[in-house]
């Protein structure tokens, strides 16, 4: 499967990614249904870090469940092409129509904790998102739309403020890592 090869070939950026990659590979090798929410303990998700053309801003949503500004993304739900998932979620969650990958390669790997919560009136137990992240680009002049069942805000945030607007300490670290990686690339 293409996603397995992409994850196994991914070169970790730092210690967090090295450790998370090993655990994600363990899940791939030892658990069924990690592409679907049928695996209630841990499943694959795809996230998008969306930059404007000059890479000075990031398109973010105000996520209703996490009560925080966040990147876009969602569950694989059986889709093996995780870049397709990232692109689809970026469009659905922000209203943008044209978004393109800066690279089709995985840009970042994370294991993200999800606290127990209610979604559409049903309780979802605490679990892990095995997150594969892609770096995308969109035109900041495009009209943005809220997706009320998932977010209550969509806006371009200056790249240096991204970590500051997050209410999730573990995500601040991830956003800072991604921004450092973008800057290292030049």
CATH class: Alpha Beta
- Put simply, the count of helices is 5
What class do helices, strands and sheet pairing give? alpha+beta
Q: Helix share of residues?
A: 25-40%
Q: What is the beta-strand fraction?
A: 25-35%
Low-confidence stretches: none
Report Rg: 15 Å
Q: Judging by the overall fold, what is the CATH architecture? A: Alpha-Beta Complex
**Biggest sheet: strands, sense, closure?**
8 strands, mixed
Overall average pLDDT: 95
Number of strands: 10
Domains (count): 1
The run of helices and strands is: HHEEEEHEEEEEEHH
Shape: globular
Keywords, separated by commas or semicolons:
186 residues; single chain; globular; two-stranded antiparallel ribbon; 8-stranded mixed beta sheet; Nucleoside Triphosphate Pyrophosphohydrolase; 31% helix; 10 strands; alpha+beta
Q: How would you summarize this macromolecular structure in one to three sentences?
A:
This protein is of the alpha+beta class and 186 residues long. It has helices at 2-9, 15-30, 82-94, 162-165, 169-185, and strands at 42-51, 57-63, 68-70, 72-75, 99-101, 108-114, 117-119, 122-124, 127-138, 151-158. The protein has one domain (2-185): Nucleoside Triphosphate Pyrophosphohydrolase (Alpha-Beta Complex).
């Amino acid at each position: 499967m293409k996603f397995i090869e992409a994850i196994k070939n991914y070169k970790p950026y730092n210690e967090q990614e090295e450790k998370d990659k090993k655990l994600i590979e363990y899940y791939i090798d030892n658990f069924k249904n990690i592409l679907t929410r049928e695996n209630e303990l841990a499943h694959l998700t795809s996230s998008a870090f969306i930059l404007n053309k000059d890479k000075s801003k990031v398109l973010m949503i105000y996520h209703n469940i996490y009560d925080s500004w966040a990147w876009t993304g969602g569950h694989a739900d059986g889709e093996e092409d995780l870049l397709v998932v990232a692109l689809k979620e970026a469009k659905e969650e922000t209203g943008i129509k044209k978004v393109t990958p800066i690279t089709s390669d995985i840009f970042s790997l994370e294991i993200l904790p999800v606290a127990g919560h209610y979604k559409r009136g049903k309780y979802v137990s605490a679990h892990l998102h095995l997150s594969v992240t892609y770096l995308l680009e969109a035109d900041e002049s495009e009209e943005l739309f809220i997706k009320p069942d998932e977010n209550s805000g969509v806006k371009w945030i200056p790249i240096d403020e991204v970590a500051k607007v997050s209410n999730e300490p573990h995500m601040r670290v991830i956003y800072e890592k991604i921004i450092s990686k973008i800057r290292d690339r030049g």
